Amino acid sequence: MRSPAKKNEYPLSMRLPEQDIAIIDRAADLRGSSRTEFVREAAVRAAEAIIMENTLLRMSPQGFDRFMTLIAAPAKAVPAMVKLLKRKSPWEAGGKRD
């Protein structure tokens, strides 16, 4: 006899106030996604952020020394970023862009 196939997806049920549903639906519509997909993506992003905030980063003493050397080094300009930051915003006077 075959064993049942392992599930790759699991149901999740929530009860939310009407106002929360309205906000979620509006945001999902603006993103062009379904309510389910919007909530799933938002929950996963939030979970990843919490995990990253609480993850211990380990490195060797040599790796830490290299990291500190790079952090202490003078900053270098990135030409594409300099050009981008010098452009005028569309809402600035004249609305012209370089």
Describe the structure.
- This protein is mainly alpha-helical.
- It has helices at residues 18-31, 35-53, 61-72, 79-86.
- The protein has a domain at 18-72.
- The chain contains 4 helices and no strands.
- It is flat.
Largest sheet: none
Name the overall outline. Answer: flat
Q: In whole angstroms, how far apart are the ends?
A: 70 Å
Percent range for β-strand residues: under 5%
On the 0 to 100 scale, the average pLDDT is 90
The count of DSSP E runs of length 2 or more, i.e. the number of strands, is 0
Multimer state: single chain
What are the salient characteristics of this protein?
98 residues; mainly alpha; single chain
Give a brief outline of the structure.
The chain has a domain at 18-72. Helix content is 54%, strand content 0%.
SSE order and pairing:
Layout: H1 18-31, H2 35-53, H3 61-72, H4 79-86
Helix pairs in contact: 1-2
